[in-house]
Write a structure and sequence with these properties.
globular, about 75% helix, mainly alpha, about 500 residues, two-stranded antiparallel sheet
Length: about 500
């Protein structure tokens, strides 16, 4: 298979899986689990392969031209360092969440329907990452968003339906902002291809269009990413969804629909400027402290993790907002790390709820005696998210702090340090109230969760421990390629156009 031909498979495979499960999921026993296992494995394999394809490509990008039409006249899919990085993040987490869901979703009534929506979500995420034009970016954004609205409400309890409704309303508002931004850019440039649009904007400067659409995109993507003060929908949505979907929402969905899409447009299409960077740094630091403070008062385990997500997204945005090679590297590294340890923490919360029927910290205690694997993996994830060495979170946070100091933003660096200390405190609260102390009489009959759930948790815990190896020279290409795409800025246009003629 030619390297470029794997690009559309990131959309075709999950879309085909969703279609086949809708036909045969109920008729054939275990069909949905088997097909999701196969599709998730293939997608992860192709994602890892994409990193090597970009590394060895002559101009560090591959372009798949649908129907053979050259961009900007035809629709194209683009694989570069940033998209290959995000494909690995999304499909790595999707693989482990899918495996975890084989047992976890037994307590829900309709597993085939769950896996249909799950596949559509993955299709939307992958499609948004590889698309080369803004129209299809919006289409795939909506596919992933609408699937996630339904998945948040999957349990159909009143709390879940309310959270899904709130999430859908806020998500629709965000989509309107994004759509308006795309519409104004199309009206000004007469093209939807991102590379062509970047070239037009560079050659046809405007005093009003860029600031105007920047505000629209910032509002829309900040809502999708749940940055403070756009975070109101997230605590309810993440705490009400099934744990496996909470892991997807926090681990990859808000990063892809919010952070990735914003990075791609601001850095590679509009052209980043100091005004954009200043706003991103402020929003990042504000989110770090606000999310950490709000997490303190939570006694619902999943709500605590949801507020923690707001705080940790702040680190990613702060690193990217610095705009320096080290800051962007640290921000992307933390994006990867957060995807892993926050997904693990949500899977752990699901394990606790699955075994005990509660996630109220005031009711639990002593679970390390009956759920040792869950207790140990939760401790590893807690140390990683708190920035304790030698876990991956330590290195990414350290790089962001150093980048802040190098650029002279001591205050932002201090916010990052304080946020990390606060994170350690409230995750020690989780360890104390869930896993330490005496086991209550009503919980003495509970046992560790099934093996497939433990498999995902243990594998993610190992990644938390060894994520630091991505800093070694032989592994750095994974992150360096993504950093270079952002540093290249609107040079993205010439790279894509050159790759298209190969």
């Amino acid at each position: 298979m030619k390297g470029v031909n794997i690009i559309p498979l990131f959309v075709i495979i999950p879309l085909l899986a969703a279609f086949l499960i809708s036909l045969l999921g109920r008729a054939v026993r275990n069909f949905s689990e088997t097909l999701i296992g196969i599709s998730s494995t293939l997608l992860l394999g192709f994602a890892l392969r994409s990193v090597m394809l970009v590394k060895h490509a002559p101009i560090k990008a591959l372009v798949y031209k649908i129907g053979g039409w050259m961009p900007p006249f035809g629709i194209c899919m683009v694989l570069d360092g940033l998209s290959s990085f995000m494909l690995v993040v999304v499909n790595l987490i999707a693989f482990f969440v899918a495996v975890y869901s084989f047992s976890y979703m037994e307590k829900y009534t309709d597993k085939p329907k769950f896996f249909i929506l799950f596949s559509l979500m993955v299709c939307g995420l992958n499609g948004l990452i590889i698309t080369g034009d803004l129209f299809n970016l919006f289409v795939f954004l909506e596919i992933a968003s609408i699937s996630s609205y339904a998945l948040v409400a999957f349990g159909t309890e009143a709390e879940e339906l309310e959270a899904s409704f709130k999430y859908a309303i806020m998500g629709t508002v965000a989509s309107i902002f994004v759509f308006l931004g795309i519409a104004f850019l199309y009206g000004f440039t007469s093209t939807l291809n991102m590379a062509d649009m970047a070239a037009v904007l560079a050659s046809k400067p405007s005093t009003w269009i860029l600031p105007f659409v920047s505000v629209l995109f910032l509002a829309g993507f900040s809502l999708k990413a749940a940055m403070v003060p756009f975070h109101g929908w997230l605590p309810d949505a993440h705490s009400s969804a099934p744990a496996s979907i909470s892991a997807m929402l926090s681990g990859v969905l808000i990063k892809t629909l919010g952070i990735y899409a914003m990075m791609r447009i601001f850095f590679n299409v509009l052209g980043i400027n100091q005004g954009h960077l200043t706003v991103l740094m402020f929003l990042g630091a504000f989110s770090i402290i606000t999310g950490a403070v709000l997490a303190f008062s939570q006694w619902d385990l999943k709500r605590l993790l949801a507020y923690s997500t707001i705080s940790q997204i702040g680190y990613v945005v702060l690193g990217l907002g610095l705009g320096t090679p080290l800051g962007i590297f640290g921000g992307l590294f933390h994006l990867f790390n957060h995807s892993v340890f926050k997904s693990l923490l949500f899977l752990n919360s699901g394990a606790v709820d699955y075994a005990s029927g509660t996630r109220d910290l005031r009711e639990t205690g002593g679970f390390s005696k009956v759920m040792p694997i869950t207790a140990r993996t939760n401790l590893i994830a807690s140390m990683a998210i708190s920035g304790i060495p030698p876990f991956g979170g330590f290195f990414s946070k350290l790089l962001i702090v150093i980048a802040c100091i190098q650029k002279g933003h001591i205050g932002y660096g201090l916010c990052a340090v304080v946020g990390s200390i606060l994170t350690l405190i409230y995750f020690m609260k989780v360890q104390k109230f869930v896993f330490l102390g005496e086991l209550k009489e009503k919980f003495k009959g509970i046992i560790e969760v099934p093996s497939v759930m433990r498999f995902s948790m243990v594998c993610l815990a190992f990644i938390c421990i060894f994520a630091g190896i991505l800093l070694l020279p032989s592994f750095r290409a994974f992150l360096d390629q993504a950093v270079n795409v952002l540093l290249n800025g609107t040079g993205y246009a010439s790279v894509v156009m050159e790759a298209a003629v190969k």
